[in-house]
Amino acid sequence: MKSAREFFHKISYLQYPLMLVGLYWMARPLINNLNNLWADYNMALIFYGLAISLSTLQDTTKSQNKLSLKIWQSPRYARIFLTYIALLALVMLGLGIFGAMATQYSALNEISFGIISLGIGFVGVLKSGIEMAEHHQKTSE
Q1: Alpha carbon 12 to chain centroid, angstroms
Q2: pLDDT score at 109
Q3: Which DSSP state fits 141?
Q4: Mind giving me the DSSP string for 37-57?
Q5: Are 129 and 85 in contact (CB under 8 A)?
Q6: pTM of the complete model beyond 0.90
Q7: For 56, which DSSP code?
């Protein structure tokens, strides 16, 4: 099982090229005199959502730095952080679904699928955060 964990941890590094692709789509309207602004931002949000989703494949038994270790070892800080991520995911998904289904405002309608993608990525981050909090609180006891 350890080899599968290592394999997916290595796949999680694909998040960085996807972030660069998202950065390209964010900069593209500036290069093209704001042509296709919302369509390009939608593409950027989709790539950021994919990158965040891939980041959840990291090994949750390890912390990335001392600050994250401090957050995950503290039940209070972990609860605050997980609540923040849950609210962020809920807002993103709600706004994206509203934009896709109910609004006539074209800009929100154009970026709604990117917002949904980002919200799905944050749901994955929430699950990984729960696993990290459980693991690091057990090891610190």
Answers
A1: 12
A2: 85
A3: -
A4: HHHHHHHHHHHHHHHHHHHTT
A5: yes
A6: no
A7: T
